[in-house]
Design goal:
Helix content: 10-25%
Structural class: alpha+beta
Number of domains: 1
Strand content: 15-25%
Largest sheet: 2 strands, parallel
Radius of gyration: 15 Å
Strand order of the largest sheet: 1-2
């Protein structure tokens, strides 16, 4: 069977709720693709906190910002939009 890749955002749920969702899906490895893995409002989702919480739950944690997106501001006449690159090849 081919590997399955899931995507999840932490939003403002608790760390326990995030890991409950991860565990229900049978995820064994969590890959954090954020360029800046930190959150002032949700410190439980900072890089070190996620790595520690993952380890306690038997889920491998890897920070791989090269796989993530970056927002690029594009200005055009009369408008301004943000384009997010989700996957780089």
């Amino acid at each position: 069977m081919a590997p399955v890749v899931y995507s999840i955002g932490h939003s403002n749920v608790s760390g326990d709720e995030l890991f409950a969702r991860v565990e229900r899906a049978g995820v064994r490895t969590l890959v954090d693709v954020r360029a800046f893995p930190a959150s002032r409002r949700n410190p439980q989702f900072g890089r070190d906190a996620l790595a520690e919480a993952s380890g306690r739950r038997g889920v491998a944690y890897h920070w791989m910002p090269a796989l993530g997106g970056c927002s690029v501001r594009v200005e055009s006449p009369g408008s301004c939009i943000y384009i997010t690159t989700m996957i780089r090849r």
